[in-house]
Structure formats: C-alpha cells, structure tokens
Amino acid sequence: MIIFRLIGESFRFAFDALRQNKMRTMLSLLAITIGIFTIIAVFSAVDTFRGKLQSSVDKLGSNTIYVQKWPWSFGDNYPWWKYMNRPQPSLRDFAALRERMENAQGITFEISTSDRTIKYRSNSVEGINVSAASHDFDKTWNFELQAGRYFTETESNNGAPVLLMGADIADGLFDGDDPIGKQVQVLGRRLTVIGVFKKEGEDMLGTSLDKNVNVPVNFAKSVLDIQNERYGPQITVRGNDNVSLEEVESELKGLMRSIHRIRPGQEEDFALNKTTIISNQLDSMFTMVNWAGWIIGGFSILVGGFSIANIMFVSVKERTNIIGIQKSLGAKNYFILLQFIFESISLCILGGLLGLLLVYLVSLLIGAVSGFYIILGLNNILLGIWISIVIGTISGFWPAFSASRLDPVEAIRS
Length: 414
Fold this sequence. Notes:
Keywords: Cell membrane, Membrane, Transmembrane, Transmembrane helix
GO molecular function: transmembrane transporter activity
Subcellular location: Cell membrane
Helix content: 55-70%
Oligomer: single chain
Shape: elongated
Domain MacB-like periplasmic core: 25-253
Pfam family, one: FtsX
C-alpha cells in the first residue's frame, strides 16, 4: 500500500510540476517525444512493410522451390557470366522429375509472356500477362476461383483451348456479365473461359493474378516456343507438408544432377531458388533500417534524458525544505529516492505517450493521403513505454539519490 501511495504522490508531483511550469516542462519533454516518435515510427513502418512483403512472399509458397537458369541474388557482385551458358529448364527435365520425385505434392512446368492483349467482341484489355502451366499448377500456386472451375486432366494433357482469367480482366471484358463459357481471343487464338481467379489486389511483389490469363502448357506449345528463354521457363516444385524444405531441396538437387549427368564435384548448371532467399534478404535490409531508427531516435532520447535530469535537479532544489520536513517526520532515504525516480518516470512516460500519439496521427494522415496504412502495433506501443521508463529511471536516479542524501536540518533551513 505504501508503494502504491508513493507512486500516486509521485504522479501528483509530476503533474504539479507540469501545471506550474508548463513551458519549461513541455520543452524538456519535446526531445523525449521526438525520440520516441522517430524510433516507433521507423519500427511501425518497418513492421508494416515487412508484413506486406512477407504475405506476398508467402503466396509463392514457403515449401516451394523454383528450378531456373538464373539464381536469385541481391548482392552487388552478381557473376552473370557463369550462368549465361546454362541450359533452360526443359520439358525433359520436368518429365523426369515428375516421374522420379518422391517428396513433392506438385510439380509444374511454367512459362509466361507479358504485355499481351485479350479481346471479347468490341472489348479488349491490354497489358495482361499470359501464363502457361502443366496440370499441377493448382498444387504449386496458392489461388482461389470466384467462378467456374479448374482445368481437367484431359484438358491439360490434350492442350484444350481453354483458360482461366483474372478478376480485373473479367470486369474489363464482360462488364459484370458471366464470363464462363464465353470465347475470347488471345495469342491469336480463340479460347473458352472456364474459370475466373478470385480478386486478390496488387501486392508489393506484383504477384497478383488479377490481370493474369492461365492456359494449359500443352496448348501454349502450339502457339509459342515454350522453351525459349524470352518466356522464362521454370519448373516449380512444392514439397509435401510433412517434409522439410531442406529435404525436398536435397532430393531435387540430386535428381537434377542425375538428369543433367553432372559428375561429382562439378558445379551445377541450374539454380534452385526458394522464398527463404527473399525472406533472409528482407530481414537483413529491415535490420539495417531498425538500427538507423535506433541511432537517429537515440540522439533525441539522449538529449531528452539530460533535459529530464535537469528538471529533476530543479525540482529537488525547489522542494528541498519539503524533503527536510518529510525526513524529519521519519521518511526513509529510499522513500525520497523512489519518490523522485517515479516522478522522473512519470514525466518520461508522458513524453513517450505524446510521441506514440504523434505516430498514430501521422499514420492516419499517410493512410488518408496515400491509402497505405502504417500499423501501430501493441508491441511497438509497449516498446515506447518501456523506453520511456528506462530513460526516466536513468535520468532521475542521480537527482533522486542526491535528494535522498540531504541532511534534514540543513534541508529545512534552506
């Protein structure tokens, strides 16, 4: 009960100091407010970007590996000359993997071509992406259909002139009419619409299917040279749910080396790309941004800490006679010490809450202007309060310690 009463009195002293010296206290708290605002704003922005990017990466599949010619790399020194003469993933590779792979729930051969036009009667949609994939596309890619159905195995094997289209394309061509069963023209051929992808919205990696048309790869063979590098052929392998990604990658690497007849010790002529490469790069990038936020905000908080310490020394000076009276009535040193430390913490928490409020208001403003809403999460709110408590404790300790060591007689006489 004494501790709670002590905390209550400390808050009352803090707010009395704020009320009696508004300008002095607010200017001293300004550095704390700016520091907390900078750190929490950076962390909130990073968490929001990380969440959106990670959700985009997750759409590619956390247990999915892409067999491609070029490895994914984000460094400055990319040895492109080593990979130029590599062969493209081929239908032969795909057939061999599908026959011999044991730990895969789905394997697809995929190509894509961009900036195409699709037409229906007098309506057309330009700038679409046309993808062709083998039958297991629904097992290696995360998507839902809002209308129609997926390809049958017979349609995939025979290369039937059918397609799935994105929601934006369906809206642009049919103006709200049912697209299922309608014939459209794309790649110079007439194809029948059998399904429409559920609208996803644009993500930060541009992996949305909203402006995408998907056809069976055996149909695309009759229209395009699907093994040409310009169409980016790749083999997508999604491992079984009960098998680790490392195990799937190890089996896939062994099979590809066997299919390409690569001798032991010889370097691979293919790349196995996975989403963890992107995730690790995002982690390192955002870690650097977080450190920048700590450094920039840390200087403001350091200045704020000195300001709070200055306020507390002034507060001790102004209340020296009160301290003498309290000690003469039996107040222990720790009581005086905790009283001023709690007062310092109260002032810092007030500055921290103002900083958090500023982050919230700025995030609302950015969201209203750009449509990109920065999320102020509970973890960052608690972090801001924790930083305020730590700074308040450090800044208030020496003034509180000096107050607790005052001689009661000398303090009353002052």
